[in-house]
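DM from R.C. (forwarded with permission)

"hey, sorry to bug you on a friday — could you get me a structure for this? deadline for the figure draft is monday and I only need the backbone to look sensible"
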Amino acid sequence: MRRLRFAFATSCLCSVVLLHPLLAYEERGEAGAPDPGVVDESAIPPAIQVHNDNGIAYVTGGIGDEEQQALSTLAPKFNLKLIFARRDLAYHADTILRISDQNGKEVLAAEDVGPYFLAKLPPGKYRITAENAGENAGKTQVQTASVSPGKQTSLSFYW
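My reply, with the result:
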């Protein structure tokens, strides 16, 4: 299992630079309604791959400077940001993630995510379940997120 972590200061974790909205973003849908899962992949740096689960676009990574820069550039285009770290503030990558809507239906499942995770979800309330798959495997944390149009919801998980 991949156990990549980089130490960083508390201020870095709490104030990740996510203010660089330079990339194109596509929204499509019937009658002009935005499709929350569509991201213009041609505008994404090669260090990051866009994934799609149940029509929900997401990216994950953040190991190394190139990935961190790419995610910082992309972040404003996503409405959910998750950060995974150890209690000593070292990045944590080996996380199993499940996101369910307010009715309990799983809308996204991903493995080996982190330390950063960005998703473009439809507005609503979600249950975020994160399981540590690395050091101290099996520990699970659950948080709720309320995703609103035009805003980014941020959550941090510490192991």
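R.C.: lifesaver. The two ends are 17 Å apart (CA to CA).
me: no worries. Helices lie at 10-14, 65-74.
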